[in-house]
Design a protein that fits this description.
2 strands; 1 helix; 47 residues
């Protein structure tokens, strides 16, 4: 059996996004529009 060279991570970090990141993602999702036409999808960013 092959030797595994990676060690398991012992850190238990609670990763929390910044407010800027959340704001960016929410604004992006509000501006994104997906239009379906004849089995094709068109993505447009309404900014």
């Amino acid at each position: 059996m092959a030797k595994i060279y990676s060690n398991p991570s012992s850190k238990n970090e609670n990763l929390a996004p910044k407010g800027e990141t959340i704001s960016f993602l929410l604004n992006y999702s509000k501006a994104l529009s997906v239009i379906s036409y004849n089995k094709m999808k068109f993505e447009t960013l309404l900014n």
